[in-house]
Give the backbone structure.
Amino acid sequence: MAELPVPGACLCGAVRFTVTPPTLFCAHCHCTLCRRAHGAGYVTWVGVFKEQFALGAGGDRLVQYHSSTHGTRSFCGVCGSSLFFTSMEYPHRVDVVLANLQGRMDREPEMHVFFDDRADWVRVDDGLPRFGGATGFEPLPAASGQ
């Protein structure tokens, strides 16, 4: 049975899109760039193949920012909502901010990435695996409440 598309939008509704499961992953990212871009302790992303993503409205309102040598972040030029991330390392994929989806996805968060780069005031005790190191995806030892 085919999955139904899950709608999403920015805060003001100018940019609308859909994501069709199955997703590739769902992860909390603690990297400095994500924290600064979202103004939060971490951001939760879902990844899908580009063919599973469709921009419905507001393409003319979408602003792209090359936040690193390997990635581009897209946000609404009206309200500033951070929406998408694309990487030259994974050109077949688009990462979407989970909080901007307006429906339940096929998976819940399953890991923390770039965890050793987290804000020192963030405490996490959810039992999810933690990854970090140079790539952000190397296994870290489990530690309660950090």
Remarks:
- DSSP finds one helix and twelve strands in the chain.
- Residues 2 and 38 are 32 Å apart (CA to CA).
- The longest helix spans residues 32-38.
- The radius of gyration is 15 Å.
